[in-house]
């Protein structure tokens, strides 16, 4: 007795892919900004520190990206980040013509995620929301706005180098020769490590959609510095994509036939 083979799943529509990118970016920003706003320093002012600190925030984002990649990756590829989308296009893994739609979806998802956290914070005790906004609402910054007081040069270098390394990992673990099924795990833990390096320098962007979403609520000086966290993660991602494409992802040519 034989049974008919299961039908091949159809390619997700463009609308489904964009919705998946909105949902995944919402999840990423909501989790990151929520953990940093509500949990990072919880109880510190009362002398009973129960907050998760830098490590907890970094793990939150790494685990969220891992979960999002498993959940939405089969639909859209699980980018959730304009720098990732452009880096994958530069590496020949994504169509340039589809980058604009993905980036718009990611920006929308990020803004919705930050807005949701803002709404929750508005219900906090007196002064909670005002303090969150005064602190930049988890925005990225350098100089006086840097968590560790690092200057613009350090912020630029960190965003280029860390995003470059992050994209190289993504391109490597999603390659056809890589072990299948483990890419989201490697990507999530890589992002956790990268955040532990970068949070003290500039609050760790690596993602223009995340930076825009928080700067909108931080306002003022945070918006004035936003350009750094849009331009330089993209620069690092593009360098990674082109480097990987031309140095590592070449196709072996067959010998000429006589």
Automatic annotation (TrEMBL):
It is a multi-pass membrane protein. Keywords: Cell membrane, Membrane, Transmembrane, Transmembrane helix, Transport. The chain crosses the membrane at residues 22-45, 52-73, 79-96, 103-121, 150-170, 182-201, 226-248. Gene3D superfamilies: Glycerol uptake facilitator protein (1.20.1080.10). The keyword Nuclease does not apply. The keyword Cytoplasm does not apply. It is found in: Cell membrane. Belongs to the MIP/aquaporin (TC 1.A.8) family. PANTHER family: AQUAPORIN TRANSPORTER (PTHR19139), MIP17260P (PTHR19139:SF199). This is Aquaporin Z. It comes from Herbiconiux moechotypicola. The gene is aqpZ.
């Amino acid at each position: 007795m034989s049974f008919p083979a299961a039908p091949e799943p159809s390619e997700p529509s463009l609308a489904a892919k964009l919705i998946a990118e909105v949902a995944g970016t919402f999840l990423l920003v909501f989790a990151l900004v929520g953990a940093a706003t509500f949990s990072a320093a919880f109880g510190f002012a009362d002398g009973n520190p129960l907050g998760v600190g830098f490590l907890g925030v970094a793990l939150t984002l790494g685990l969220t990206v891992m979960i999002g990649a498993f959940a939405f990756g089969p639909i859209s590829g699980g980018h959730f980040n304009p720098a990732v989308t452009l880096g994958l296009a530069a590496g020949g893994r994504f169509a340039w013509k589809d980058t604009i739609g993905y980036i718009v979806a990611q920006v929308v998802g990020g803004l919705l995620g930050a807005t949701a956290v803002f709404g929750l914070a508005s219900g906090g005790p007196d002064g909670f929301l005002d303090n969150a906004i005064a602190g930049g609402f988890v925005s990225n910054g350098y100089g006086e706005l840097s968590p560790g007081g690092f200057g613009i040069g350090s912020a630029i270098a960190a965003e280029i180098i860390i995003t470059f390394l992050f994209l190289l990992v993504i391109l490597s673990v999603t390659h056809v020769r890589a072990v299948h099924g483990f890419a989201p795990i490697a990507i999530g833990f890589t992002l956790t490590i990268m955040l532990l390096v970068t949070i003290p320098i500039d609050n760790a962007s690596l993602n223009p959609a995340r930076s825009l979403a928080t700067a909108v609520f931080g306002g003022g000086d945070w918006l004035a510095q936003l350009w750094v966290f849009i331009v330089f993660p993209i620069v690092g991602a593009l360098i990674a994509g082109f480097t990987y494409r031309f140095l590592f992802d070449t196709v072996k040519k067959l010998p000429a036939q006589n």
